[in-house]
Structures are given as C-alpha cells and as structure tokens.
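Hi F.,

I've been meaning to write this up properly since the lab meeting, where we talked about keeping a consistent format for the predictions we share between groups. The idea is simple: the sequence comes first, exactly as it goes in, then the structure tokens exactly as they come out, then a line or two of notes. No screenshots and no reformatting. I'm using this chain as the first example so we have something concrete to point to.
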Amino acid sequence: MPALEDGEADEAELVLIGIDPTSDDPGQRVVDMLLDRGHEGEEGVFYLLPFDLGMRYERVGDRLAVLLLTSPEVYDHMVREYREDLAEAAAHLRTAPLVDGGVLLLRREIATDFDPATDSGDQPVVLLLQEGPAAEPDLFSALEEGEAALAVVGTWGEDE
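Output, unedited:
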C-alpha cells in the first residue's frame, strides 16, 4: 500500500488487509464489531487497546502471515453480550487453541520477501473496511469518497 499522507517517504510500505463487514466470514465480522470498541481520543480518532484487537506477524519461508487477535475476555464480552447472532457463527474461533493468549480472528498470508519489522518492533497493519469485494483501485477511490474507512492495528499484547 502506498504512503497514507503526501510527503511521506516514497519507500514507505504498509501492510493492508481488507475487511468486509458484510462478509459471511465470522472473523471479519468480529473484527468489524471490535473496531466499534474504540476509545475516542481527539475528535474523530478512536484508539483500541492492544488486547482489544492486535496483530502479529509470522514468517515461514517465503510466506508472510498476518494474524489479528483479541483477548478471550474481550471476545466473550463483545460477542456474547452484544452480538448473539454472531456468537454461534463465530464459536469455532473461541474454541480453537489460543495464539499467544489471544483468540485468532483472521490469518492472512502471502508469498513475499517484504519484511514489515521496523526499528521499534513490528509495524502496524492497516485495515481497510469496505462493503463487498472490490479491485484495489476501487478500494482507494472508495476511501477518498468516504465509502470506506481505515483502521491502524498495532502489535498484539503490547503494553498489556
């Protein structure tokens, strides 16, 4: 993904995952729900705690995987308390073995030599929320037109 703001270094690369809140995939639907859990800082900017929703990278050979995780407590509270309709569809996520103490919501991987590690640790992942499938150029134009939203997710469990 290109830099988010004009003037950023051209070589800045970001890891992007598309999230479709209308998908049948329960993991995507839980991620969308958790993004509503944000705590407002400055006007229009919401922050998630690292155990609300966090990411980590895994590399196996030429494959880079991004994992989106939430704490079991947050999962239980949000899904069972607020989304009974989602509880049954997403039950397999909660009963699967925990990953680093977290409920694995999504795992996306790709063959690449890109190394997302930064000087201060793993770089965050950018989530692009857009209803329905779309080609990459359409995703960015939807963002510019206000029909899509961005969320930046930091490292799982950091500062827990």
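Notes:
The longest helix spans residues 72-82.
The mean pLDDT is 81.

If this format works for you, I'll send the rest the same way.

G.
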